[in-house]
Specification:
Length: about 400
């Protein structure tokens, strides 16, 4: 059981590395393909937007597939897409291959999350989700630095690293994920899509989007926000990023246990409120290196705890449509990543380099307000009764379509 969860996490580790490592190799890509650095940066935008748009579409089109078929197909497409990226002879081809890789990632992550919750008892679903989503956080601490280091010699080596990770997960799951717990027969497509008319789904997805815009508004421009502390020194900035990556891993791990013990509502409210306070304090914390390190340790811890609670809440709203709902959560997350860069740029223009994190504080408070007004305390005790506005125990997520 544990090994299968770790293999699912290896897949999300590959996806997370692919998503975030691109920023570290833009200069090399631009030089090799004879384009500007901003043009090379469109690799990030194209991947994020393709992921966001394709996740719900692919979840709908593959709704009658078994979970195993979905996962193996997703990893195959993802691995092939990255191999083609590594071989891309020109800029246009590279962008096209990023769409293909994003399609595989968009199909994989929601189904890996759904599979993880199906492999464990109800009281351990939060920890199972944390294990799988932890692959994304470990990517920030290990995959991104390693990929960036390899990319110093040749950016294509970075892409081959992602290919190796994806192929490893594909091989492992092909061998070990031969069966999943039985589930009820597949519902009709119309029935599966019914949750899209549920106001709770809309507000939950909106909460994910708002929170990740808040988080990435600062994260994308962390070097700018912490320049008073780092003095522009790359070594100090690397230390902040290392601390941030390690805190992300811890936040995902602790968040899963907190969800199982306290429920999603408590984790969402505490995490988003704490993040808002951290964003608001950053203009002062960033004046010194100890303050910046404190911010780098606390904010990802809270942010990734919230990132575990958000899909847990959505999956429990309509278990029969869990893959679709989790794909919507992934879409909102990646749209938040894409929007965070633009929001941060606008905030810096309007508020200046010191005060722009206040924008994130306001957005995080808005996410807190959405949680507070669209969820309520359970009428009976129990950690799994809090993800929705109706305090029913979280039903088991099915494992096959």
């Amino acid at each position: 059981m544990r090994l299968r969860l770790l293999l699912l996490a290896l897949g999300t580790f590959a996806v997370g590395t692919d998503t975030m490592v691109t920023a570290g190799i833009l200069g090399q890509v631009a030089h090799d393909l004879h384009v500007s650095v901003p043009a090379a940066g469109q690799m990030v935008t194209v991947f994020a937007l393709a992921y966001a748009l394709l996740a719900p579409v692919l979840a709908t089109l593959t709704t009658r597939w078994s979970r195993r078929r979905q996962l193996l197909t997703a990893l195959t497409v993802f691995t092939v897409g990255n191999a083609l990226s590594a071989l891309a002879p020109d800029y246009a081809t590279l962008l096209a291959t990023r769409v293909l890789a994003a399609a595989g990632a968009a199909l994989y992550t929601p189904n890996a999350s759904a599979a993880a919750t199906a492999l464990v008892p109800a009281e351990r679903r939060g920890r199972a989700l944390a294990t799988v989503l932890g692959g994304m956080t470990v990517a920030t601490a290990l995959g991104v630095p390693l990929g960036t280091y390899l990319g110093r010699a040749d950016w294509r080596l970075t892409m081959w690293l992602v290919v190796a990770l994806g192929a490893g997960a594909l091989l492992g799951l092909a061998v070990l994920l031969r069966d999943l717990p039985a589930t009820a027969p597949a519902a009709a497509l119309r029935e599966r899509l019914a949750p899209l008319r549920d106001r709770r789904v809309l507000t939950a997805v909106t909460t994910t989007f708002v929170f990740f815009v808040a988080f990435n508004t600062v994260y994308v421009y962390l070097a700018t926000a912490t320049r008073p502390a780092t003095g522009g020194d790359a070594g100090r900035l690397s230390l902040l990023l290392l601390v941030s990556g390690l805190a992300s891993v811890a936040g995902s791990w602790l968040g899963g246990r907190a969800v199982d013990r306290l429920g999603t509502r408590a984790v969402l409210l505490a995490g988003s409120t704490g993040a808002a306070l951290a964003f608001a304090a950053l203009p002062w914390l960033a004046r010194t290196m100890p303050g910046a390190l404190a911010y780098a340790a606390v904010t990802p811890l809270l942010g990734w705890a919230v990132s575990v609670a958000l899909p847990h809440r959505l999956a429990s709203l309509a278990p029969a449509s869990a893959p679709l709902l989790l794909s919507l959560n992934s879409s909102a997350l990646y749209l938040g990543i894409a929007a965070g860069g633009g929001t941060g740029s606008a905030a810096i223009t309007l508020l200046g380099e010191r005060w722009f994190p206040l924008t994130s504080a306001v957005l995080a408070l808005l996410a807190t307000l959405l949680v507070a007004t669209t969820t309520r305390r359970p009428t009976t005790p129990g950690p799994t009764t809090t993800p929705t506005t109706t305090p029913d125990p979280a039903p088991r997520v099915p494992t096959a379509s």
